[in-house]
Each structure stands twice: as structure tokens, then as C-alpha cells.
Amino acid sequence: MSNTDIHAEHSVDEHKHGEGCGHEAVQHGDHVDYVHGTHHHALHGDHYDEHEAVAEHTVAEHAHGENCGHEAVQHGDHVDYVHDGHKHAAHGDHYDEH
After folding, report:
1. Measured between alpha carbons, how far is 32 from 40 in angstroms, rounded to an integer?
2. Whether the model pTM is above 0.90
3. What angle (nearest 5°) sits at the alpha carbon of residue 40, between those of residues 92 and 45?
4. CB contact at 8 A, 89 and 75
5. Do residues 32 and 25 lie in contact, with contact meaning Cβ atoms separated by under 8 Å?
6. What are the pLDDT tens digits along the chain (98 aa)?
7. For the chain, first and last CA: distance in Å?
8. In whole angstroms, how far apart are CA 4 and each of 22, 33, 56, 63?
9. What is the b/e burial string over 45-65, where b = at least 16 CB atoms within 10 angstroms of the residue's CB?
């Protein structure tokens, strides 16, 4: 897996999610995801991130951080951790798939 972020298949300029955009809005902690096919789009600065699901392990089962054994990748205002070909991002009491 490369160190590039997983961005949605369309840009903010091509389609802006929001009220009346035609996609279901789902509250996801401190932000809103928009259901787009089988996955969710979450606004992240000038692009959308793919938010497909909650990660396969909990924070209690494995805490990502310094020396956890996973590559850390800066992603805007937070760090993602490369985990078995995908990325985990801390989000409250769980990890999101990024």
C-alpha cells in the first residue's frame, strides 16, 4: 500500500455533499458522512475521504501509536496507521477505516 490517502472517486468541485445533494446523511461522531453506494464520503478539507466502516479491532484490543508496529501516515490534522493493506484513524472510542 502506498502512503497516499484514500480519497473518494469525486472531488468537492465535481459534487458537493450537503443538504439536498441526494445522498443520505449519517452522523459519524463529530462530522457527517454521506452514503455513496456501498461506502461513505466524509469531507476532509478540500476533498472527501472514504469512510467505509469501523475497523476490525477496537482501541481496547490494540492501541495505535508510537511503537505499535504499524506505519504512521500523516493525514491532514491526524495520523492514520497502515494496517493489513488499509488505514485506521482514531475516532473517539474506535478506529475508522480510511
Report:
1. 9
2. no
3. 70
4. yes
5. yes
6. 333 345 666 678 888 888 899 988 888 778 888 887 667 888 888 888 877 666 667 788 888 999 999 999 998 888 999 877 678 888 878 887 77
7. 12
8. 29, 21, 21, 22
9. eebbbbbeeebeeeeeebebe
